[in-house]
Design goal:
The chain is an alpha/beta fold and 504 residues long. Helices cover 38% and strands 15% of the residues. It has three domains: 142 residues, Cobalamin-binding domain (Rossmann fold, 3-Layer(aba) Sandwich); 223 residues, pyruvate-formate lyase- activating enzyme; 101 residues, no CATH class.
Length: 504
Amino acid sequence: MADIVLATLNAKYVHTAFGLRYLFANLGELKSKAVIVESDINKRTLEIAEAILEHDPRVVGLGVYIWNVAQTTELVAVLKRLRPDLVVVLGGPEVSYETESQRIVELADVVVTGEADAAFGQLCSELLAAGRAAPRAGNLPKVMAAQTPDLAQIALPYEHYTAEDVAHRIVYVETSRGCPFGCEFCLSSLDRRVRYFPLEPFFQELDRLIERGATRFKFVDRTFNLELERSLKLLRFLRERCRPGQMFHFEIVPDRLQDEFLEFVAQFPPEVLRFEVGVQTFNPQVAMRINRFQNYQRLKRNLRFLREQTGVLLHADLVFGLPGETLDSFADGFDELVALRPHEIQLGILKRLRGAPISRHDVEWQMVYNPNPPYEILQSKTVSFDTVQRVRRFARFWELIWNSGNFGRTAPMIWARASSPFRAFMRWSDWLFARVRRTDSIALVSLMELLFEYLTVELGLDPAGVAAALAEDYQRAGRRELPAFLKRHLRGVRTAAAPRVASQ
């Protein structure tokens, strides 16, 4: 039994709920009366409710995010039907703004907005000490704004990663909160104060995690490379403890990378560091409109260095649908990014996060968003609904073909003869959707056959060359037995990935 259950629905099993562990770590004497119950959005609502209620809690704290708000709303409704006396407390970015219009807020008892590390524990102490059946009866406000905590005073959560977390899941860590930049599509633009955790206690916790066998770390700092000396100190710490199989993920601002930083990351073994590079748009007018200022010359220079002189894995982000962006201008920007050869390009569709200042452009640019999460753009003054749908499919097929790593040699054939990789891939995307009428549940071998047909019939490429490339891609992951359609085109042909395929 537990008086307090901390719960959330992660997007995937591999993710861990960082926020819940902070709340748990800062419960003080109440920690012995609390448990964490994690699930994911693919689990049935009644099963999640059962897992929570089996602890017979008096208070349930739920982390609410853009990816789980729909399912969490269902969960709260079920919990309150089964246990009307249960105190349901919400927190998280999705319920920190525009609370008056949200069904989930109406269903719950209390919402704690902002950074609730300490505030949630204080609330629970008050609720449990008073023995209230429902906080509204005790004259508590529906919405409570948490005071911004002193990062040097809050308890760190890292000991609360379990052995299963360490062995099988991503371990989230942070050395700072806040962001100095004002990009209007991001909630961080609402508070540009950057606050730092003391490094020595953090290093001690990180050392313990590494000794426990953790290998996959994701730093959630909004701008890891903001302060050179601080970031170098952390990188030196990691370099000294670098072991095979480790991965450290950071978000960086690419045009602010300094030479000393670049030269140091070049010392890491290949694929240990993974940088998430927020480019978002190559259109200077659009960038200025959303208060995002970038030095594109430095950005390109730094990405070239990282790609050519280091073993860093580069994951670059672009956003489609920003106010004033057209399909042509976005295509040109995508082509510029392809030329810089990041390992992955994440093509996202603009989302209107609750509270984000991007909404100030709604009238002028006729921005129309989906009313349902994740609130993606549907159309605007410069892009039609049909265009957004085509780009949405493009993004999904790009994930399947390029970001998956399954077609490293074959994928560039799609745009090898074209002046624009974006427009060439869009042609393939339109063709593929016309054939299959879906963007998911496409088996790998079926996708290979369709790609073979497109490259050889639609683009007129040599069948033997395409088959050889597909065979190399297929067997790179350790698969040995080739699909039958490839064998037919590879009889007597020696490929780089496999021995000669004999005639049958």
